[in-house]
Structure prediction request, 303 residues.
Amino acid sequence: MSTNVLSTFAATAFGGVVQEYLWNWENQQLRVVYETLGKGSPLLLLPSFSSVSTRLEMGELAKLLAPHFQVIAIDWPGFGESSRPSLNYRPEIYQHFLEDFVKAVFNTPITVVAAGHAASYVLQLAVKSAVFSKIVLLAPTWRGPLPTMGASQQIAGIVRELVRSPILGQALYKLNTAPSLLSFMYRRHVFTDAAKITPSFIEKKWQTTQQPGARFASAAFVTGNLDAVHAQSDFLELVQSLTVPLMVVIGESSPPKSREEMNALVALPGVRSVVIPGSLGLHEEYPAVVLEAIQDFLFFPEN
Prediction:
């Protein structure tokens, strides 16, 4: 495992130093791209899993945090500018990757700010190993879109294999990542201000979905194959097992099922929480509001 500084991705970066982390999984080397901005105590930014997942969704928040922290934002394996091989993407990959990355790059416990589906992976690692000093979860989720819609594991599995198939899969994936559908998705449960969903914004998101191999990890997420837990009770048990401070940020316009899960989480003793404008993409849509909401938690020692 090693890290190297890259210069080739400067056009798509948010202003930091772009590096690659070479990580081995089942005798296959994956290139994981991450970006570092600012100086100070390290803070790890983990984007949500989605068909359009990249570290750039954390870019504006990273810039706001950089005067106070050394901010590191990653592209998950299978997403963004990281390698996208046709693996059977499943929780074990991301559990091992996150642990290996954190232990390779940092030598002290760090603050982590994780969005969406990254929540379960952060909580699992925090319970297993003392690598985090504080945890902020932004619009946390633990169940993928198809299971949330009520699809059985069997149906989700059939869909996943269809999308993974060579010709039909590519066609299905292209249909489901068309700019019109991406725009619909953003309007429905990601952003709340339709004026921010411009043609150029959607074009950038669409370009992300069209990278070689993009459909494999995306299909795994959508069909629930990246769900690190499979019941609300398991998710809440992780939180109850934490020994580090936790804060949760909820978008007031979150989809009803997701909001119910978040409400159950913040009802637990010791969990700090705040509700701000936005939905599942609140970290990208309202980065300044997010910073204002979490800055006391981040900047001051816990009592």
Summary: The first helix runs from residue 59 to 65. The first strand starts at residue 2 and ends at 6. Residues 5-11 have pLDDT under 50 and may be disordered.
